[in-house]
Amino acid sequence: MMTRDCxxxxxxxxxxxxxxxxxxxxxxxxxxxxxxxMLLMLLLGCCASTSVIADETPNAQQARRIFNHTYDMVFGPxxxxxxxxxxxxxxxxxxxRIWYKGKKKRYEESRYLSWxxxxxxxxxxxxxxxxxxxxxxNPEREKYESKFTFNPLDFDYYVEDGGTDFIVTLNAHKKAKxxxxxxxxxxxxxxxxxxxxxxxxxxxxxxxNISHFKSGDISDDTFTFPASKYKDFTWIDNRLxx
Length: 242
Hints:
This protein is of the alpha+beta class. The chain contains 4 helices and 12 strands; from the N terminus they run H-H-H-H-E-E-E-E-E-E-E-E-E-E-E-E. Helix content is 19%, strand content 37%.
């Protein structure tokens, strides 16, 4: 069983605001890149791999097996890449591409880009023309990542036939502590690749469409920061050991 430390209410209150939809809309352009990335990672990784529970129905066991297979395709040691398009109830929209391989990560959006090779984390702000460096394991560079929790045992699983896809639904138990109430994933039957994910977090729905998914054959060079390309930017070094 995998767990992730979480204070979702505080996190999403700070990201989106809670006073009104109008106030939220004014704040959307000020979202920090790592907050958006952590939200994306939560959406993609929330259905963490877990063993089948013996007293579940055959349908629930099948749903868990499907999730486990797809999860391993995304987050397994072979690595993966995909393009994403996130929509939070029409308030925030962001699209980009992300790569995973073990502890290595990389993502690209129109303004923000980052490379993490497991030792050094480099983030580029194309608008401000800055490069910010962190140690890869420094909690400050992704301080919101530690605020997410998902306990796969807090949910009932159900799978439906969607023609060429599996439609897997998760419904939280009444006493579940996690603020994820419902989730629905569309998974390709033939390839088992994720196609979309919709989650109800607290009081709002968040959806992510996934395309150009590839599992495996991800070179380690993908996560090497091309420093010379940004030599004229302003560099900010926040590493503990320089």
